[in-house]
Amino acid sequence: MKKQESNTPKPDIFGSAISAYYHHKDATDILVHSPDFDDDVIPVHYLFRDYKEMPLLERTALDNCSGKVLDVGCGAGSHALYLQKHKKLDVTAIDISPGAIEIAAQRGLKKTRCIDFFDLKNEKFDTLLFLMNGTGIIGKLDKLDDFFTHCKELLTTNGKILIDSSDLRYLLDEDEDGGLWVEMNSNYYGEMQYSISYKNEVSPIFNWLYIDFKMLQLAASKNSFSCSLLKEGDHFDYLALLKPANRPE
């Protein structure tokens, strides 16, 4: 997978696909490329699913949202729309895709912003919501401290984080004794690199982090957060609830 030059304009892959589906019912898939795996697809219609069509982990996360909510990486806005309409919550939906934000607003979201999560400043939320492998935006394991520091800045005193991820341990080779074999100097197995494409547009390569629950717990504890397992999925995925450890009960 060849890296694009730094001066290459970044195409709005998700925005283009979401807009085409919303306006023209164009169901062309988004393709996901990795140097380590065969290409995968993201069906665009899946980004428009309603509550009944969502996986159990996502429904559990939405059921646990409260107060003022920040939906990070909202895409077409399906999660935020449910919270706004059915739970009557004050929801701000953000995404780095201008096209996705435009459609999310057209679908009825009252508060939308095209901004990177790490650029958000001087605001407070009761719930930070990260779904569809929410840990992905952290990028790499050594960015976890920065992630928790930024979350603290955005959380109210009694605030919480709802975040999902997957343990990619099942992809690793096993030795003859059934134990996992990992090179001592290799990167953490959940650190991935991808690019995505839609029709004739291809994104630059980006880092994406999958993190196992025990590793997330360790990182949370190091940064003075509690971390509890809310729900496990059927495919090595899970939903975690994190709170600042020094919050009053």
TrEMBL record:
Q: Which GO terms describe its molecular function?
A: methyltransferase activity
Instruction: State the Gene Ontology BP annotations.
Output: methylation
UniProt keyword Transferase, yes or no: yes
Instruction: Report if keyword Transferase is assigned.
Output: yes
Provide this UniProt record's keywords sorted from A to Z.
Methyltransferase, S-adenosyl-L-methionine, Transferase
Which Pfam families does the entry mention? Answer: Methyltransf_25
Q: Which InterPro entries match?
A: Methyltransf_25 (IPR041698), SAM-dependent_MTases_sf (IPR029063)
Taking every annotated instance into account, which residue ranges of this chain make up the domain Methyltransferase?
A: 69-159
Protein name, please? Methyltransferase domain-containing protein
Instruction: Please give the organism.
Output: Antarcticibacterium arcticum
